[in-house]
Design brief:
Length: 251
């Protein structure tokens, strides 16, 4: 197995949570509900609300893999509102479902991707639908050259489904002649990306955003001891890009 960053030919990325600030996007869009909560409601705490939201999101992705992300996310909005016993409209839920395409990139993402593009093919493998991903490409990622985008909508399932990664392997082989051992997976989420990466023998990089790498969507590394085996850990994608530049300069 390759042991240097210079040994790889392509990078595959989780998008929302690794490149796009998923938690800030969710929290911002849920302010519509938060503003209607009693002052002492636990959902006024960002981490509590996002963790509860994430339970609903993983539930629909696991139980209804054919459901489009925007529809599933709208359903999560409804479940949160009903659980908190606060009013909402269907139009509000649908607008929330389409909000992912407007969520912001992390400050380091765009420049880091431009650096990494000098050395690798870039592939996004996302659990989000085509409409939201396209708006991300045209908005926050404008000017970034992504070679291939694979979405849950096109693949018919959500990560951590192994078939999504098999489609990834087949795609980079067919389009670029890149073998699995030459592909490096870059992601934040431990359960969604790094667990299946270990199970499938895919080398990975953990982008450990957040205090100690622990966030509501990404999981706590202590909880996944023995279940993940990332080869590198960086606090941001920008830090990874800097290390890649250094590695190729010294090659």
């Amino acid at each position: 197995m390759p042991s240097y960053l210079t040994d790889f030919k392509a990078l595959s990325f989780d998008c929302y949570g690794t490149l796009i600030d998923w938690e800030t996007g969710i929290w911002t869009q849920l302010q519509l509900l938060v503003s209607r909560l009693p002052e002492n409601h636990p959902f006024r705490d960002r981490d509590t609300l996002i963790r509860r939201y994430n339970v609903f999101q993983r539930e629909f992705q696991r139980e209804d893999p054919k459901t489009l992300y925007n529809d599933g996310v709208a359903g999560c909005f409804v479940k949160l509102a009903e659980e908190a016993n606060i009013p909402f409209t269907q139009a509000e839920a649908e607008a929330f479902g389409r909000s992912a395409g407007s969520w912001p990139a992390f400050p380091d993402t765009v420049e880091a991707l431009k650096v990494l593009k000098r050395y690798y093919k870039l592939v996004i493998i996302s659990n989000v639908d085509n409409d939201n991903v396209q708006r991300t490409l045209e908005g926050p990622f404008a000017g970034v050259d992504i070679d291939v985008v694979l979405t849950a909508e096109d693949m018919g399932a959500y990560k951590p489904d192994h078939n999504n990664f098999r489609i990834l392997f087949d795609t980079v082989k067919q389009k670029f002649g890149v073998e699995k051992k030459q592909l490096l997976h870059v992601a934040k989420s431990l359960p969604i990306d790094h667990v299946p990466a270990k199970e499938l023998g895919l080398t990975s990089v953990w982008i450990a955003r957040g205090p100690g790498g622990s966030t509501a969507m990404g999981g706590n590394v202590k909880e996944y001891d023995g279940k993940v085996a990332f080869s590198w850990r960086f606090p941001t994608l920008g830090d990874m890009a800097a290390e890649v530049e250094k590695a190729f300069a010294e090659k």
